[in-house]
Every structure is written in structure tokens, then in C-alpha cells.
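Lecture 7 notes: from sequence to structure.

We start with a single chain of 493 residues. Read the sequence below before looking at the structure.
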Amino acid sequence: MARVVVVGAGVGGLATAARLAATGHEVTVFERADTVGGKLGRHVHDTPAGPFHFDTGPSLLTLPDVFTDLFEATGAKLDEYLDLVPLDPIVRHVFPDGTTLDSCADPAGFAARIGAALGDRAAADWQRLWRRAARVWAASHRDVLRRPVGSPRDLATLAWRLGDLAAIAPGRTLRGLGRRHLADPRLRMLLDRYATYTGADPRRAPAALVAVPYAELAFGGWYLRGGLGTLADALLSRCLDLGVVVQTGAAVTRIDAAGGRVHGVRLDGVAAPVPADVVVANCDALTLYRDLLPSPRRLAGLTDRSLAGFVLLLGVTGSSGLPHHTVFFPADYDAEFDAVFGDPGRGVRARPAPDPAVFVTVADDPLVRPDGHEAWFVLVNAARHGTSAGAVDWRRPGLAEAYADRILDVLAARGVDVRDRLLFREIRTPADLDTATGAPGGAIHGTAGGLLRPANRGPVHGLWLVGGSGHPGGGLPMVTLSAEIVANEIGVA
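Now the structure, written as C-alpha cells:
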């Protein structure tokens, strides 16, 4: 059995560590932060009324079977550690004209809701798109999500049937797919939003991302009682029970890889190297190939056009009546993407979007807020932190506070005014996410975009990449699947 070092205790790193330890490997996890979970962050704000608990990362769990498989592979049962609560609606969509549409995990039921809200033609259009999405999902799940993919040639040689290729529509964008199938502009908005799940602009994102709404709406959206952060607690518990050594506050500064294979890692402030036969990097691919194992050729394929997020954590008195998730769409969605991504080629700089889509999470969970109050997580798409034309310097004095005011004004204009019911507000900018998790520029889903992400197998023997910026992508189920791929590949290497 191998000596394994995992760099980073995000969900992908902890899941890989647990799987490897369950098969007998000697595993040590080094995490630069003082807590585990990575972007699955948590924050507590104490008030005289009581504590408010916030998930500062993901607020929705999808594809629960992925997590069932993970826990069973490590000798446990998911329901022994986590309390899953199904959501209906999964998301309430509030469109610019005031129309609302609640999504759910019943395809026929959702089509009926579309018909009631948007008309019979819109429902028929959605059902036609849904059939196509089902084919894309089946092909992706069978040939991509559970196996390593390291190059375009790997994708080209997968055993897709002609019907699958037609559904996947190579070369077409998600926006183009929406325009082709959906006549109602509100349904197009709904579809466009799923590109942002991967950190992408729907006008450039591949049409194959139609599999994302299929996965959410076919298999359901779930909340974890006590908050999504309880998933990090559960994974840490599994790791410790299996003998994994987890060290927080331990930053890896370099991977030793002389002679074309890994030999160990170097820790900040520690003179002696830590030996390892295998290193699993649960960090952004940019960090890996720029800092830990400099590889200029690997850096060339990484994008700097991935979304970040601007977040408000609000303590609100009283009850709003909002469901768990609500998205308030702007009148001009393209103006938001123009602002967030900019266009460096034409000299157009990224900037805070003045009228963005606003995503509000309000958990109906007494474990996360005092009686008579609500804990609001408010998210808007934002440019990554930086000083280039495609970024925003979120540390510029006064910017974050002014933009927070703007977001509250936007919510008020869309019918949800909480400005006179705030106990407190806290702000999290892309710069804060960069500092807290090492995500370059605060990129939520990693610096790698599109369908083809950096390969799980690194450029030297014994190096593996797991997590959101590697294959198969960002999001809780995807990084957990990346852990499965890596653990299986290490097992046969």
C-alpha cells in the first residue's frame, strides 16, 4: 500500500482520502486553513437574539446517490451522518415581469407548472428540450462523469451513439440551444442560469451543459439539516475513523517530483520534506501548476474567465415567506454577463453589474437561526478579484459597501425590501474567497472552464488532481465523482 499525501481538505480531498484509506493506503491530508471543507464554508454570527449560522459556499445538494456510493465505499451509511431534506420548490424563479415559476424534481409536474405560469407552448418547448437533455445526461454519465478524460482525443473516442452526438451538439452554445428550443424568453433565462453553475457565460458555454438542469430536476435538490457544512463534518469523521491523519493550518508550498515522479511535499515553515509515493492535489489547477509544481505548458489551457461571487450574509427579523432558494432575474441578463466577464479584446473592463440576478437562500431550519429571524445568504455573479481588464479590484476602498447597498436596493425594487429589518449584514467578496480558500481570484468553480478540464492524472508519476478545477468539474457531486475516479485509478496504478 502507498503513502499518500492529499493537498487540501475540500470535499474532493476528503472524499479521496476516505476512499483510499478504506482500501488500506496510509493517508495524510494537509490543509492550509484552520478548518476543513474548502469552499464548503461556514460562518457563525452571534447576536443577543442568538447565533446565525451561514453556509458560505454551496446551498444545494444534488445527485444524492453519489454521496450514498461514497459512504458505502468507506463502510458507512449516508443517513448515519447526514439528514437530507428534499426541496420543493428547488428554486423559485422570479422573472422581470413578476411571473414566478417553481422548479421541482417531478418532470411532469414541472411541465405542468410551466404551462400554468408561462403557457402551453412554453411547456411543450420545455418537454422537447427535456428529452434532449435526458440523452445528453445519459451519454455524459455513461462516458464522462465516472471515467478519466485527459484530452480532446479521449472525448472524441468515447462510444457515443450518433443520437448522443446530435443531442450534445458539439460547437453549439447553451444560449444557442435555448434559442433553438425555447420561444419564451423567461425559459431562456432559466436555462442560461445553469451555465453559471459551472462559472461560465451561457453565450460561450457548451450546449452539453443542458445536462446540469437535467441532473438537478430529475434527481432532486436537497438541503442538509444544520447546513451544507455538515457534509464536511461527516467526511472528516469518516476520514478519522479510517485512520487518515488530517492536519489543518499546514500549507504545502511545493511538490517534490525529481526524475519524473513524486517523492513528497514541502510544508511552510518545516525544513524536512514529507515523503509520499502518491500526491493528490485538491487545489485549483492554477495553484498546482503555477506554484506547487510549475508547469507552464499546463497553465496555458486554464481560463481567466470563470465567475466569482459577491455575497451578503444577512440577519433578518421576522419572516419573509420565501422558499429555500429564490432567484430574481434582471430585465437585461446579457448586460450582467457583459459586466461580469468584460471584453478585454475590445478594451471593455469587467465591473460590478448594476442590475444583476440575485440569488437568495433562506433555510427554514431552526438549527441555523434564532426564533423569529431568518439567516439570508444573498449571492450575485461577480468578476473575479484582480487588476486585469477581466477582473475587479474588490479591495478598492468603499467598493464592497457601496455594492452591498446596491444589491439591497435591487432586492427592494424587485419586491423584497429587508433594509429596515436587518440586524446585521456581512460582506464576502471574491477577494475574501481567494484569501480563505486559495481559489485564484475567488473563482467559485475553479479556473478551468468548459467540458474539458485538466486531467486527473498529473504530468509526473504519482501526481493526481481532484476537485472543482479538474475533471469532471465543479459542484459537490462533480468533485465527489472526481474523488471516485482518482481513488480508482490509484488503486490500479
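The first helix runs from residue 11 to 22. Keep this in mind for problem set 3.
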